[in-house]
Amino acid sequence: MRKSFITAVTLMMIFLMTGCFSLIPIEKESMESIEGDIECEFRVGYNAQFIKEAAETDVTVDKDRFVELFNEKSQYNPVRLKYHLDECDLKINAENQPEEFERIDSSEINIKVIYDGTSRNVSLFEYNSKLYFFVLCMGGASKPEEEGYYYMELSDQMSSYWSPLLTQVREDAEADHLKKYGSFTVNTAYSHDRRYYTVINDTGSDILITIMNTKGDKKVAATFSPCRKSDFQGICWEKDTYNLWVQSADIGTVCYSFRDGEWVEDPGAVRPEYIISKYD
Length: 280
Description:
The protein is 22% helix and 29% strand.
């Protein structure tokens, strides 16, 4: 759920929490204060919490402000909200509103504070210049009209601190990413209509790319290996087709076009100008 790709375990946990499968009690977690020094890490983009690489930025956060933010998020119990959907500030249906879901899904910034041998993290999402917490996913088996992703808006008072800070983080992260990868990413990425997404793995020496169908998280094509792990520099979907570009140190940029249910190398493809390679 929630982002480009989430592991099966994470999906199960979220489904259980939100009632997509069943209900379990949720114990709310809160913080009183943070003593001593802290380290801050920010992860930006789809499924930000699970991105390995933190953004390169000098931005730090105030300890008391983070405690306030963490406790604000913790108050929202998805089991209760399942029966009080009218209390949620924003609902987006990923299937009926793919472009809107793309906007909020890709806007995630995960804030991780490390202190005293432990850590806590909170994710915020941006939509129409406002900040939100993701709180609930509803399935549509019994009540299709309720299907969607639900969010709670951050208060104006709290946003006045976090919004400019996260804007700077995003700008720093985008500049760093462009320098390292251009338009490409080494993380999970969705096709323009969110019908497909990529899963990137390695065998120890080679990169393996699998194309998955968002509905049911099912594999739709044979896994292919475009290059060695040491040469891999990311993948990028075209914005209006299912063409997938792979960037690597040994072969440059290569297109894999969707033909007869498979993604096959297309040496005659012309890379769109909006896809910027690290090697341009």
